[in-house]
Every structure is written in C-alpha cells, then in structure tokens.
Amino acid sequence: MPSAPTLFHTFLETCARHKDNTAFIYRVGEDEQRVTYVKFFEDALLLARSFKAAKIRRGDKVFLLSDNRYAWIVTDMALQALGAVSVPRGCDTPASEVEYIINHSESDFLILETDKLYNDLQPLIKNLKLKNVFIISGAEKHSWFEKVVSYSKILEERTIEPRDIEWFKGLAGHIAPDDLLTIIYTSGTTGTPKGVMLTHSNIMHNVRTLPPLINLGPDDLWVSILPTWHIFERAAEYIGMASGSCLVYSSIRTFAADLETYKPTLVATVPRLWEALYSRITSALKKKDPKKARMFNALVAVSIAFRRNRRALRGHLPVFVKRPAVAVLAGKLRAAMVCAALYPLYVLAQKKFVMVQEKFGGRLKAAISGGGSLPPYLDEWIDAIGIRIINAYGLTECSPAIAGRGLQCEIFGTIGPAVGETDLRIADEQDRELPRGTEGEIQVRGAQVFKGYYKNDEANAQAFTADGFLRTGDLGRLTLTGELVITGRAKEIIVLASGENIDPTNIEATLSVFPFVQDAVLVGQDKKGLGALIVPDLEKLREFVREKYNQVLGETEEALRDKQLLDRLREEMNKLLNAKKGFKPYEKLQNIYFLTKEFTLGEELTNSFKKKRHVIEKKYRDIINRLLK
C-alpha cells in the first residue's frame, strides 16, 4: 500500500518506480498515443512551470471545464504541485451553472477544453473577474491583454533542466495531507450544487484501501469511459496511477471496440451503462435469430438459478435474521438438488457465454459498478454470463468509497462490507445505531469523509451527527456478517396522501426490466396513488405491442396516449409489483405516461446519470396532476 502522505507524493513515487511503464493510451483523431510515466512526469512539470509563470499560487481556485482526456490528469497534477485547488466540471455544464460555480468557489483562473467552449462562454467570461483563461486544445492563442492563452503557446518551451526537476520534486515539501486538493460541486439532484471540499488525506484513504479489493497491480489495464471530473472515475484514475497500471481513455463511440482491442483487466462503469449493454445484447440477439435469443435467455436463467442455489449451499447469500439449524439444513438440501439437476445445462451455458466475455477482451478480472445502485436483475444477469462485478457504494463526500463487494467478498446480493479504515452504521431518525438486519439510514465515519461544503454552514450542520458520522441520506441494512445492502434513498421517499412512505428506486428498477422502458420516474408525492413517467424506446415498444397484443403502434404521439393500450401496459407492470417480490398493494401504479423527449445530461440527469427528481417533477407538474387526479 502507498505510504506517501499526499497524492502528489504518490505521483512522484510512481513516476520514479514505474517510469518506463505505459501510464496512458489515448487517441488524437485515428492516431494512438502512448504515454509512459516518465513522460507523464515531464508533462506535469512543464505545465506546472507555465502555471507558475501565469501567477497561479498556493490556495488559488482554478475552474477546470473539460471532459475525458490525458491533458485533464496532467492539469490536475500540475495544479496539485503548486498547491492550487481544482474546481472541475464537464463540458456539458450549463452556462448558468458555470457562472454560479466560478463565483461561489471564488475561482481566479479558468481552464477550458476547446476554443468552441471559450467562444460559447465568452459573453459570460467577459463579466467574470478572472486573472487568466487557459485553453487546452485550440489554436496558438496568446493574448495577455485579453488574459487568454492556449496550452500550445505556454508549452512552447519544453526544455527541462536538472534544476527544473529539483524544483518540481521539491514542491512536495510544501504540500500537507490536510491541504485542500479539490472542490467538486455535486450535480444537484435536489437543488443548487454544493461544493464538496476534499483534501489529500481524503483521497489517500481511497488510494490505500481500494487496491486490495481488486488485487490492483502494475500489470493491470483499465478502459475509462466515465467523466474524469466525477469522483468515481477520478478515484479510479488515482488508484491506477498509484499502482503503476495503464489507463486507456475511451468514449461512448469507441468503447466496445476498445474493449476488444486493449483487452482490459478492469473497467469502471455506472449502472446506466450496464442497463444499455443488457438492452443492446438482448435486442441484438433477438433481431438476429429469435430462436437463438430464446435459447440464450433460457441459459441465462439456468445460470442464475444454478449460481443462486450454489451460493445458498455454500452460505454465500445475505442473511438478516438467524434461522433454526434445521431450516438452514433443509434449505441447503434443496439447493443441492437444484444444483445437481441444473449442472449439465450450467456447463453448457458457461461455454456459450464465452462469446460474450470475449466482447470484453477476454482478460477482464472485474468490472466495477458505482455512482448508483445496480438493480438486482442486472447484478444477477452480469454474474450469470461470467463477468465478476464489483458492486461499489460511495458518495462524492466520501472521496467516494464507503463499501465494496471486492474480489474477496463471497456474499452476493450485497454491496459488501465497509472499505478499510471506515466506521459504518445503520441508524434511526435519532442517529441511534440499529441492530444488524434492521433498515435505517447509512451513516459513515472515516478519513475519506470530506472537510465540508464550501461556504455552506447550514448544509454542514445538517450533514453530520453529533458524534461525527456523515448522514448519507441512503437507506440500508447490514447482514449478520456485516455486508451492506442498500434499500432506498431517504431523501427520495414519496409520501402519499394516505401517509404511506414509498421508495421509488426499487419500483423504477423493476419497471426497467421491460425492454421498452429506457427510463422511468415514479411520481405521486401527496397524491392518492402512484404514477410513472416513462421514457420509451419506441422501436422496442412497437415490437412489444406487436408480439404481446398483435397490435400495430402508430407513429404519432397520439398513439402513445391510447388509454386502452396504456391500461394494458400498466397491468403488465403491476404484475411485477406483487407481494411475492416484496411490494405493498399501494405500490402498484394508478397510471403511466410516455414522455416524448429523452432525459438529458445537465437537465433531467446529473453527470453521473442520476435523475434530478425536483427538475423532472417541476417540468412535468401539469402532466403529473392530470395523471393522478
């Protein structure tokens, strides 16, 4: 485990220890670029030298507006070297939010990814009191009068003298563990973005505790697709760097090809990507050969049943209440009989699933899913086809790691235990610890927990308990052996007019089983019953309606308002929301409504693909009122 006190110390140690290893692979157009750790060191040095000349100083806030690219991590390390504080966001951040964050964070410097971004934001930039604007990728712009300069200009002088290396390494002596490293503004699922202050000490907790969960080493290779500024991806890049491993910057367009080309050992993803992958694979099979698709789905069902019963036999399923020994033994006997009956088909299934595994390059030891809760059906499906999924749980406020089902954890259907050096408890509304097996709020304490929200005393007072635990706002319970299961979101609870409390996330995850449901939002606050706003995949909806009801769905919006069709589809959905699956009678849908516009990042979705419920409910208030009169 790294013993370095700060992330910059870690960077220096890695670049010295693994200097000839490939650190990053990325493309410029169609040309592949490979960067060694020694080149990474040199690039960070050159940029830090240029930033110093531009008067960036210790403690200065620097707003970084950029998406995934090698220059992002170089910029990050250069700013760390100088003791400056990065304030990062993605290129799709609305201008109003950019303005708010720059002003609220008191950023003196602005770094933009492209000329286009600069041109788009120029009216805003003119009204901001910025000392300098830097453009990562653009023409050789250089106008100190306008305080705008491109990287290509400030990096013209690339000569590195021994004294430069000595100066750069010496900067580590001025950086302490409790120094502020970054302020990350949450995307705001509930309102105005809040600035999460993270120190070197916060991040170093993750660097120490996460690599053992995935047996991370210098021979590992990651394929990166998530927003680099987002803490989940950022932490993955930091722990990858600390281990001396290699990271490939990918994109939505090239992701599938990059998996086969680079054959990664690790990928970090979010549930929404897995949902898209599941939908793509099942739809492609069905289109190509419906008979083979049915066979594939049958083999997946066999694999799920076999693996579930094998885990029951081995005691690898979550247990919340101690059961009599006789009941445990009877359960194991039943599981053994099911396993014996299914084993021949299970062996066949594993042979068939090799083709799916090859799509991931054939070397994947683990896929990490974070940034949201992975629906149980997806967790089982991914596991069934032979991909080891590490279901992780965290928050930006925790840098982000709280718990993870690492390679050593055998208890499926859970998030796994708390990561190292972490106190995790389940508490009631009075912040009293609850016994294992009982649902309550997840609360956490440890070195990874943030310093607080920037300039927001009210939010800070609400965030922590009297004894220093962070209130996550998430609901969960612990198994008898200490693994965490997330059961919902306290802050997203819908309260019906009758007073019944409903967690929308479980119902939404269930609705997403339908192939035509691209996204679903449960509504019903203060109403008599529940409704669902559904973003449909129209092609799959037409296919479903044709096969299920022998009916042709029209091309017009009016076709989506057909009451008879909506009622039939609602009945299909309510069949899944049954008591056997743990749903209450009042959790059935009263009505559904198909939206004609997809949710988009920066509007209805945060940059980590979480739904902004307050935005959606406000935008569709009239529809919700008509839906649930």
Describe the model:
- The chain is α/β, with parallel strands linked by helices.
- It has 3 domains: 7-175 and 210-268, ANL, N-terminal domain (Rossmann fold), CATH 3.40.50; 269-364 and 376-389, no CATH class; 493-627, GMP Synthetase, Chain A, domain 3 (2-Layer Sandwich).
- β7 (142-143) and β8 form a beta hairpin.
- 42% of the residues are buried.
Index terms:
single chain; 629 residues; alpha/beta; Rossmann fold; GMP Synthetase, Chain A, domain 3; 3 domains; eight-stranded mixed beta sheet; six-stranded mixed beta sheet; 26 strands
CATH architecture of the largest domain: 3-Layer(aba) Sandwich
Number of domains: 3
Q: Mind telling me the C-alpha Rg?
A: 26 Å
Q: The biggest beta sheet, please?
A: 8 strands, mixed
- Please report the number of helical segments: 22
